[in-house]
Design a protein that fits this description.
The protein has one domain. It is 74% helix and 0% strand. It is built from seven helices and no strands. It is globular and about 45 Å long. The termini are far apart.
Length: 151
């Protein structure tokens, strides 16, 4: 039962099994998490994000052993966390969410400095998750600049 739960979480509610671009589908789940929590108090958003981070960490640990790979492509809970982080604490309209999604996927795929270095330096579940969180921070900063300029 515990293994099934970890598999569900690590694969982003099975979106990680989509044959093409599983990370993109995992990022969509991150947008859904944001939409489900955007109306709550910031402290509650922090709690939910932290709780999902903890569950994801445990799930990625399981997935690494289960799939026999340091960063299995079907593990997308890291994309969920990164996308969710890039949106959290913003009150966004539809177009801003789409823009954030595109920016996050850009950073997640290209891995500009220091994202690639972080991905290589940290091993295990922290390494799997941390590069996407940094991509989320990059997205949040760029999105904030764009929104502040009037978009």
């Amino acid at each position: 039962m515990k293994e099934k739960f970890y598999k569900i979480i690590s694969t982003g509610f099975y979106t990680g099994y989509v044959p093409y671009a599983p990370g993109t589908f995992g990022s969509v789940v991150g947008v859904i998490f944001y939409l489900l929590t955007e109306w709550t108090f910031y402290s509650y958003q922090i709690f939910l994000f932290g709780f999902f981070f903890f569950i994801s960490y445990k799930s990625v640990s399981f997935a690494i052993r289960f799939f026999g790979n340091d960063d299995p492509s079907s593990v997308v809970c890291d994309e969920i966390l990164g996308m969710w982080l890039s949106l959290i604490f913003f009150e966004l309209n539809f177009y801003q969410i789409i823009l954030a999604f595109i920016i996050f996927r850009f950073f997640d795929i290209l891995k500009p400095f220091p994202i690639r270095r972080i991905e290589k330096r940290f091993k295990g579940p922290l390494g799997v998750i941390l590069d996407d969180l940094v991509a989320g921070v990059y997205t949040k900063i760029l999105l904030w600049i764009i929104i502040s300029s009037g978009f």
